[in-house]
Specification:
The structure is a homodimer. By secondary structure, chain A is α/β, with parallel strands linked by helices. Chain A is built from 16 helices and 18 strands.
Amino acid sequence: MSAGHELDSMFYPKSVAIVGASPNPTGWGGTSFLTRLIQLKFPGNLYPVNPKATEIQGLKAYPDVRSIPEPVDFVVVAVPAAVVPGVLEDCVIAGAKNVHVFSSGFSETGEEEGRRLEEKVVEITRNGGLRLVGPNCFGIYVPASGLTHWGARPTGSGSVAFVSQSGGHGEELSDYAQGLGIHFSKIISFGNACGLQVNDFLEYLAQDDDTEIITMYLEGVRDGDRFTQLVREINLTKPVIVWKGGLSDSGARAVASHTGSLAGESRMWQAFFAQTGAIRVHSLVEIIDMVMALKYPHVPQGKRCLLLGGGGGNAVALADIFSGEDLDVPPLSDETRRGLAEFIRLAGNSIRNPLDLWNVLDDIQLLRRCLDLVIADPVIDMVVLDRHAGSWGNEDRMRQRELNDYIIDFAKNNIYNKPVVVAMRMLEHDPDIIAAGARLRRDFALAGVPSYSSPADAARALGRLVKYREFLVESSGDKGPAR
Amino acid sequence: MSAGHELDSMFYPKSVAIVGASPNPTGWGGTSFLTRLIQLKFPGNLYPVNPKATEIQGLKAYPDVRSIPEPVDFVVVAVPAAVVPGVLEDCVIAGAKNVHVFSSGFSETGEEEGRRLEEKVVEITRNGGLRLVGPNCFGIYVPASGLTHWGARPTGSGSVAFVSQSGGHGEELSDYAQGLGIHFSKIISFGNACGLQVNDFLEYLAQDDDTEIITMYLEGVRDGDRFTQLVREINLTKPVIVWKGGLSDSGARAVASHTGSLAGESRMWQAFFAQTGAIRVHSLVEIIDMVMALKYPHVPQGKRCLLLGGGGGNAVALADIFSGEDLDVPPLSDETRRGLAEFIRLAGNSIRNPLDLWNVLDDIQLLRRCLDLVIADPVIDMVVLDRHAGSWGNEDRMRQRELNDYIIDFAKNNIYNKPVVVAMRMLEHDPDIIAAGARLRRDFALAGVPSYSSPADAARALGRLVKYREFLVESSGDKGPAR
């Protein structure tokens, strides 16, 4: 929510018209949008628009937007591209300012006809004062107002916003994230960006009380200076995570075919990240990995990791992986090592860092003793635990559950407030064990403990978290560290 | 097998003594080794050695190696470190040349006592002319001769060798790989490398008819010049894949704690890879991804990929990922695009490259038509197909199976001999769908089609394959391209 922003009526509409809904309930596009709004119990008025129908899914149908008896808060347009300009003209006449055009077939086709139609859309939008999302996109997803256009149903409302030039990414991300307990305030898929731009959405999200973290998938940005300025400001209070697509030559060509955008130069984007401190990622998984790290209340005060795993080769791999993300893996202090040596034999183990301690990872008493020692060590800022699933018998499974419950408690309540995160160890071919590992990862995530599909994923997210924290401290200057 | 190499008696022993086996059948170390050899039906003579027992697991036990009534081909030593020198002296006296020392507690502990013991081991080995593997390692795994020391049982024999300074990596790799249909000729875990060195094993594998691909996990190499020379030679006929661990500072410390090795400098290793053309990887998964690409009979004649996926944002991501691995994603030729345009509508799709064609990925007739066109395009050297699992109903599942069977046939038998590989699309939180995806990946792999857990993994392996092929062509000079 926000205090009277003009886009409020788009994100929290009291009425929605769906132009292009059809009486065929299995239809794609407008019909499926209507079905989803009904299924999600959209609380306001729904107006199907179709000149060939009088009733659709039990609702009175209207021949055009002008015939709807109230000024509609939000119009969704899902008709062939050639018909879109006419519908937009109707919206202007009817005073329906907020419009989402789902239809594709514009500049992204690379054909003359599409380009011409897109010019027309831009013209009507500008002259008519429309607030247009799209065309060629999935539009607005706001669980709190019952608004969604894709198949993955929201199961809750959260504090993460995702601004995306790919609707597919929006759907996939919403589904993936909520399975791991991360929910969204808003997802905005805005495709060819003929009307509202990423900057318009950013201005809204900056003042939106429901949004605490802003994530983005971008293909092209028009007003780069304003964008940089906005992100630089917002990033100081709401972390901004950006995946920029299309920086390779062939990626830029794919961007042109997808949203007709100009992908921009790699160098320009490097400068953007350096100036804004925005967190740079390269996939949807990395977005969620990062969100998980940011939402976790314990904040690392430095970059020094304690890594606890099993196996000597694995210890070497862990050290290399975390060092590769600009994190430190320092030797433990003498005092901690003396404490560990009291109950760990040296042959076949290592009490340096990474700790190579199979038996500790499998025994709650040893693990407790070990974690109590290492978390207190002043050379350590955070702890990463190797976990894995196996084809365990009942007894093992119960012991593992007890261990995992203990880890969750320790990760959330350790008195040092140091982050404790879990990295899954998944060198597996067996689908059942892979599923068990995924379940375990999800259990940690749902319990509020950042958990990653691999040590490499954990290292990447933690490395970025540390870098973001450093940016905040530097930016705060003599005002003292932020938060 | 080989023609009379002195290490033949170690890799294909007719008799094995296990020093440190105990009557307790659940014991670790020597006891478990003996159990595994019995379970695997090791065809030769087994001699448990334990001064406190007369019979172990139904076999006559001997008090020491000297008391065994025949010269033993291979002695496995699993006793506390302090006792190891005495056992080695017995081996020298008994004329048992091939020895594997499992025991840890030597230089890797960083303690004076361990260093002193290791010096003694080196001295006895050198003076007694022993061929020592270890200490502090899992030793030799040869499915063809019934030899294994770890829990993951071999299910077959293959053409891949793995030389590893981590036994844990050996066990994990053997298990992971064979689940995907890749089997080993030999796995050699050689730990602290006090006797036989990586160069000794390489010389053996170079002439070993059972080995076609050599993979390695190394922490430190002593005779670097000889190593470089050997790999440079072997790599021309048997691809050599190397994971070097411990190149970060903390990784180097972990290496010291693990096998007491000197990790060496990053720059030195860069030179090694440049000079030898060895394939550089950074994990066990990457080793197997690479082996899969190398074993596939179709060889890319260039670096130009056709990528077929669904979703516009996904197409941009695919293009960026493959470009990032030095592969090309060129636009299709006009002729191919004209052919595609005959049955694919432009709005919402892209027939450039990557192809963004959801419906083609779900319809065997369309897929066939599409693949027949793109595989024939002279601008394309290989094809990568996006696959994913879903929570499908029966009908969908059957259609998917038909599609996948068709893809397997096409990947193996297309008349252009161009590689066709599968990249799983796995943005999933649902453990059951994750398991279904893993099963699908495995099905492709077991059918002989390279399949990868993600587009990033596929791109990495294919990029390395192309680079390796280029190295072969350059190395062959005016003798024409190899193979």
